[in-house]
Every structure is written in C-alpha cells, then in structure tokens.
Amino acid sequence: MAAPLIAELAGLRALARALVGGGDAEDLVQDVAEAALAHPPKDDRPLWPWLATVLRNRRRMIHRGEVRRRVREAAARPSDDAPDAAVLLDRARAVEAMGRALVALVEPFRTVVILRYLEGCTAAQIARELGVPPGTVRWRLKEGLARLRATLDDPPAHRRVLATLAFVPRPLAGVVLVKTKLVLLAAILVALLVGGIAWFTRESPTSTATPVATRTAAIGDAPRAIAAARDAVGAPVVDPLPGQGRATVATAPLAGGALHGRVIDWSTGRGVANAELTFTTDAGATAVHADGDGAFELAPPAPDTYTLASVTAAGFLPYAPELLHSTVRATLARDRDVRGVTVFLFQALPYRGRVVDAAGKPVARAIVKLLGTPEGEQRPSVVAGIATTWTTDAEGGFEFNAADDAVLEASHGKQHGRARLDRDVQLTRQLVIPLGDTPPSERRITGRVVDEHGAPVADALVHADPSNAPVGGAPPIAPGTRQVAVRDLGPRGTAFALADADGKFVLDGVDRDTYSLFAEADDHAAGQRQVVAGGTDNVTLVVDRGEAISGTVATRDGAAIPAFTLLAFRRYGAVRELVVSRSIVEPGGAFSIRVRPGDYELLAAATGWAPSKPTPATAGATGVSLVVTAGATLRGRVVAAEDGTAPIPYARITREALGGGASAQPANAGTVTRDDGTFELTGIPAGPLAITIGAGGRHPKIEAGMLAHDGEVLGPIAIALAVLKPGEQPRLELVGIGVQLTADEVGLRVDRVIDGGGAQAAGIAVGDHVVTVGGLAVDELGLDGAIAMIRGAPGTTIAVAIRRGDQVLPLVVERRVLHT
Predict the structure, then answer these.
(1) Interhelix angle for 155-162 vs 180-190, to 10°?
(2) Which residues are CB-contacts of 141 (< 8 A; sequence separation ≥ 6)?
(3) What CA–CA distance (Å, rounded) separates 196 from 212?
(4) Residues 6+ apart with CB under 8 A from 213
(5) Cα(328)–Cα(582) distance, integer angstroms
(6) 157 with 97: CB under 8 angstroms?
(7) pLDDT score recorded for residue 175
(8) What proportion of the chain, given as a percentage, has pLDDT over 90?
(9) Among positive and negative, which fits the CA dihedral 806, 811, 815, 819?
C-alpha cells in the first residue's frame, strides 16, 4: 500500500505547493502522509475515499488559534453524522464545481497543468511533446495555476463549494480563508480527475467503490485525461455570454507574442470542436487546430502580421475568402498575449430547394448553380468539396447547403430563375426558385487593375456587385410625378475574381444588367467603376496608394481594445457607403487603413463593448481616437407563444443596427438564448434600442420602445415567438409606422408603404422622402438612427417631415403593430 500511496501524495504535494506555496501546504501534506503510512487501510477499500477520511480528521487538529477555532466551531459537524439527501446533493454539486475549475481552464494552460500534475511529466518532457520551448511550458504552467487559484479564490464560489465539504470550516464574516484550504480543494480535485471517484457523495469511507484507476506518466494520455475530466462533470463549459466575451491583453514571456481565441457555433454559442484555422504571412501558412471546446492558440517564434485565411470544421460552412483577401488580421507583438478572441462558424444546415414553373408545377432535371454570397467567403477555389451545382429530382427538389444571403440560379431550357437564401428561407429551410424570363448569368466582364502610374497590380481582388441602375443612366422623371428610378431585378449574385500577374481579371457568372465594380489590393485605396453592364470587356480599374488614416481604439480610461472590427464610411446626405471593413487584432488597439482623399466616418465595434460613436476623419489623419464604452445590458427570456412559458433555446438576439465585418467576426454579433431561453445582450449603445429575435420554425420579431443608458441593466423582458404552421411563410412582427426606407442623397426614400400602418393612414406614399424624424435631420441620424427612433411602443406617435417634390410636409404618424 505504501508505494501507491506515496505516488498519489507526491502528485498532491506538487500541485498543493504550486497553488499555495509556503510551509503550510508542505506541513499539511507531510502530516497526512505520515498518518497514512503509519496506519494504512487494512483491506482493499479504494485508496482515495480512505485518504479523504484522513484529510477530514487531520484538519480538526490544525490551526488551533482563536479565530480559526471560531470558524471551525461555526461549521463543524460530528464525523458520525449521517448526511441526508440535501447534503449529498450539495456535495455532488461541489464535485461538479471543482471539476469545472480545471475543465474550464482554457488551452493551452489546461493541458500543461494536467500533464505536469496529473500525468507526472516534467517541463522538458512536455516541451518536447508539444514542440515548444521549455520556457513557454513554464509560463503556461504558471499562468494556468494562477487562473486556477483565481477561480478557487472567488469569494462566492469559494463559500458555495467549501461550505459543502466536511473537512473545511465555513468562513465567518470578515475572516479571510487561508490558502491552506485550497490544498484540500486541490486534493479532492486530483481525486476526482484522476480516479473519477466522488468520494464525498458516500456516507462512510467503508462504502464499496470502484478502485482508483492506475495513472500513467505517458504524455500521450493527456487527451484521455482531459476527456475523462469532461465526462466527470458532464457537457463542456459554455460561455455564459455566448459570443460576447471581451478580448484582453496580458504581458507574458513570448518571443513572438500570442493569440488565444475560441471558434464558436453561431447558432448555439458553443465551441466548435477540432476546428482548423489557417493563418498566412509573407513567409507561408500556419495551421492551428482547436481543441474539443473550440479553443486555439497561435504562438509564433517571432512577431508578424497574420491573416486568417480560412476556418474549417466538420459540419460547418467554411470561412474561406479568396487567398490574401481575408479581412481578419492579427498583428502580434513580443511579450504580448491577446486572449478571448472569438471566431464564428455557421452550421452547414440542410436546405430543401424546389424549382417550379410559372404555374407552380415542379420542374424535373433543372440545373441549379450557386452564384455566390455577397462577401464571397465560401469560395470553391479555396476549399475543396463545396457543392455548387445540383440537378432537381422528379419532384423538382434538391438538397443543398449554402451561406446566408447566397443566391441560387435554376435553368431549364430557355427559362431561368433566381432566389436568395434570406431570412424566410433560413427559418423554413425551404427555397423555391420560380422559372421565367429572368436573364441567365452566363456573361462575363473582363478588364485590368493598374496603379496610378498604369502599372499592373497583381492579386487584386475584383468583385462585381449587382446594381439597379439602367445602362446609360436613369431615365428622366416626368414633371409632377413621384416616380423613382428604381428597378426590381430580383436576386442577383456577386461575382469575384483575382487579377493575374498582368493585372488582368475575368468576372464570370454575371447577367446582362449592370454592376458596380470594385478592386481591392493591400496598401492601396480601393478603385471602382459604376454602371458596368454584363458582357463588357477591357474595363480599367485604378487602385492607388491613397492616404492613410490611423489611430487607436480604447476605453474611456485609455485601456487598449486588442480585438475589434473597424468600419469606415463615406457620407452622402443620409447615405453611408461602407468603404473599408477590417477585423483587427493588435495588442495596442492600433489601426491604419488607406483610403482615397476625402472625408470619412470611422466606427469601431468590439464584442462585449458598445461600439464607438461615428467619428469624423479626413484622409491623411493620424491619432484618430475611437472610444468604446461598457454600454447597457439587456436581460430577457424567449418563450413559445403557445403557452407563454416553454423556453426557446438558441434563439438569436441582435441589435437592429448596422452590420459589417467578416462573418467570422461580425461587427454586430449579438447572442443566443440558453437552454432555458434566457439571454443577456451586452454592449448596447446609449439611445433608442430595437432588437431582432429569430428562431428556427418560428415567426421572427423586432422588439423596440426601450431606451438604453451606459452602464445600466434593462429588463428582464419576455419575448414570445409564434410557431410556423405547416406550409406557412414567416411573418416579421414589429412596431413602427409602416414604411420601407432606403437612404439616398435627398433623405430616406420610401420604397414601400405597408397596408394598415400609420404611414398609410397619414398619407405617406412611395417616392416620398423622410427628411426629419423626431425633429432631427436624417442626414445626422443616418438610416439606423432614424429607424431606431421610428420604432417604439404601439399606439404612440412620432413626428416626421416628408419631402414631396418642392414641399416639406410635417406629419404626426402613429406606431402600430405590423406583420410583414
């Protein structure tokens, strides 16, 4: 018995000294060891349950000072008291809480701690196996222990856990728990994780139990040890605020700096197991593998700027933009460790498509092709195995996966049709493509990208965004009418191409209508051409060096924000044209972008923080300061409308606000509900608040009428979503005046008036322009700000001014509940 006992106590001593240090830990372990060796168990009972009894009894004889005696007397219980069911339950909860302390420890710290103290490996062995310097192992070990200590020292958690264990006295008010007690916590944690035995859920040490598993020092068993730890406490730990964690930066002895983050599922907020991330630099590519909870580490030998080229995982759509043109970049710095960076992936949800003719009858053997997504983030040329074409079956159906807002085109003979994977399709998982006289996307646009001197620019990314402008410009509008030159051409895809070494590009898959062309290249301002018809050849796009705008993103007290999404806009009246979108990781919160000469507005968004206010900046400006704030927090619960109580898990909650950024790191990520339907949405900027709520198989809703103030907590609110009936199309429920608006240089153009809304009752018509809302000019509010003010409580009113021709009409419009 002595040999295995000594082995177990050796591991306990090592972890105890690492956690608390000093003579207290050594003395306690030494006392336990002497007692155990002098009076070992006389039968084959499990080692750790017996050892636990020694620990409980030993604590009654230590630290007999007056204060500690009062603490002990306040909580001591005779050892022969039989625990009742409530005590057993509390002890079981204590097991879970302590196990989570280690399981929740993020990588790479968890693996190093387990290998060192549970597997008995030396720092040199760990370094060789992991392929990192011994100094890195020692730093990870030190940091991991510090994080464990911080978790166990957390006062509420400390009291909650220790109060359930017989060998630890309850703390009295004003008495600080000595760190020796953490040694005992460590002992139980070791017993739980190594032996898998919850000894303190049993009434006596003589109870029958499974023998303690024999430990091995083989370093290859670390994954098994981690898996066993997870099994012991159930499901992996989930971020209490899915997708809203704040990134931080710490000082650490890292020659090349480090980036620690987590890949999470956009739909559930849970970590994506075994995701693979590829980062590129001028020197080549680096592949990083996430662990079972989606945690990953990038720790290069020297500082550099890394581009997130792709993120892939089984069962998820890849994040895979064209090579060299990802908008997610990390600049690492020596001795700086950026932690808590979130990367999103979207599930490869199965959709059912159906192609029908003009009469609604199914069309068999129609060819369906993916025209792409607006951001081009799932490129077949980057990630192999992405299906982009399908053939319909006898019922006109086909199964497919695609990203949000993807456009699909069906062809059968001379008939063609397109459809977009919009919100309705996402909720119903059903996409219908009607065939008709839609022009096919079988043309191309060719051209060349050059710099300001006419020299070719290789590897420039060119994309053609669909335009509604007619070829040759807009037709004249007859005097006295409110006709607007807007054509509804239905869904149309965005085409992408990379320029070759001579700057030449070919954009395939465009139709005969018009497009806006953009060319982007590193260290250049974007070039563009408007109103280019499909089939046009020899288009020249000029990208030049432009001018830089640089600055920092920080909190009000000057703390740097090390991970954020930067958006830069050009303003034309109420129009905000997004010209730059970058997701940036930089320990000092610094940024620099190149733009064409002119005036811009910059905005920074970071998860867990309220975005900065739009900040004016002129091309060439330096020292631009973008300030994020804590913002407000909204708490609530999403339930089924059928009974008003059944929770809806994984409902997505986002602010009704401007988006932007890559799908892997969007500027407006929002959050999802937990299993019990609850949520907290953080980082809400001050002002009117409207949120969008959606869940699979239910009608979405926009909730508004709330006013946020920095630092306050709103709610809790209850949101009920109605279920979709078979064959029913989703209807968005909201409160507003009943108009659909588009920003232009005049104001906010009314493109649609909803039947039964307050706008219809007030006489607002399509083609009118909203120029003020609540007495404020829409040029200042912008589209998002104006819509936020228009939202509100049903039955209330809002003052607006409408421009109609040469007239400006003041109106008071009622807000009503609408379904659209």
Answers:
(1) 60
(2) 18, 109, 112, 113, 116, 123
(3) 7
(4) 194, 195, 196
(5) 6
(6) yes
(7) 31
(8) 42
(9) negative
Q: Looking at this protein, which amino acid is placed at residue 94?
A: A
Distances in Å between the Cα of 159 and the Cα atoms of 28, 102, 507 are 21, 18, 64
CA 336 – CA 322 distance, rounded (Å): 29
Q: Report how far apart, in Å, the C-alpha atoms of 397 and of each of 400, 414, 498 are.
A: 10, 19, 34
Q: What CA–CA distance (Å, rounded) separates 421 from 107?
A: 37
Mean pLDDT of the chain: 77
Burial, 34: exposed, middle or buried (Cβ in 10 Å; 0-12, 13-18, 19+)?
Answer: exposed
Token representation of residue 398: 């086909």
Structure-token pair, residue 760 = 């219809």
Query: At 150, is the secondary structure helix, strand, or coil?
Result: helix
Q: Which three-class secondary structure state does DSSP give residue 424? A: helix
Residues 6+ positions from 731 with CB-CB distance below 8 Å: 699, 819, 820
pLDDT score of 371: 86
Neighbours of 133 (CB within 10 A): 15
Q: Which has the closest alpha carbon to 44: 209, 162, 197?
A: 209
Strands of 697-819 (E only): list them: 701-708, 713-721, 733-736, 739-743, 748-753, 769-773, 776-777, 797-804, 807-814, 816-819
CA distance 514 to 510: 9
Beta partners for residue 552, in sequence order: 590, 625
Q: How many CB atoms lie within 10 A of CB 656?
A: 18
Nearest to 323 by CA among 536, 496, 470, 91: 496
Query: 180-190 vs 85-103: helix axis angle to the nearest 10?
Result: 90
Gap between the Cα atoms of 187 and 37, Å rounded: 17
Spatial separation of the C-alpha atoms in residues 504 and 506, rounded to whole Å: 7
User: Hunting for tokens 């239910």 — which residue is that?
Assistant: 698
When pLDDT is averaged across residues 21-41 and rounded to a whole number, the result is: 57
Amino acid letter for position 588: G
The answer to whether the bond into 108 is cis (omega within 30° of 0) is yes
Contact 756, 798 (CB under 8 A): no
pLDDT per position as a tens digit, 448-466: 999 999 999 998 999 898 8
Distance CA 758, CA 739 (A): 9
Residues 781-810 have pLDDT tens digits of 888 888 888 888 888 888 999 999 889 999
The tokens for 429 are 């998982």
DSSP-derived secondary structure letter, 581: E
Question: How far apart are alpha carbons 574 and 772 in whole angstroms?
Answer: 11
Q: Which residue has the tokens 């608390």?
A: 20
Report the candidate in 152, 200, 201 with the shortest Cα–Cα distance to residue 179: 152
Helix, strand and coil percent figures for the chain, each rounded to 5 = 20, 35, 45
How large is the C-alpha radius of gyration of the chain?
Answer: 31
Residue (of 198, 172, 240) closest to 96 by Cα position = 198
Is residue 546 within 8 Å of 525, Cβ to Cβ? Answer: yes
Pairing type for strands 443-450 and 539-542 reads: parallel
**CB neighbours of residue 794 within 10 Å:** 14
pLDDT in tens, 730-761: 888 888 899 988 888 788 899 999 999 999 99
Please enumerate in sequence order all residues whose Cβ is within 8 A of that of 737, keeping only pairs 6 or more positions apart, or say none.
757, 758, 759, 762, 764, 790, 798, 800, 813, 814, 815, 816
Residue-level pLDDT at 33: 63
User: Nearest to residue 648, comparing CAs of 658, 663, 638?
Assistant: 638
The confidence score (pLDDT) of residue 177 equals 33
Cβ neighbours of residue 683 under 8 Å, at least 6 residues apart? 244, 606, 607, 608, 609, 610, 611, 630, 631
Contact (CB, 8 A) for 226 and 651: no
Query: Which of 380-384, 413-417, 689-693 is predicted least confidently?
Result: 380-384
Strand-pair partners of 30 = none
Residue pLDDT, tens place only, 337-359: 999 999 999 988 889 999 999 99
Q: Which DSSP category does 414 fall into?
A: T
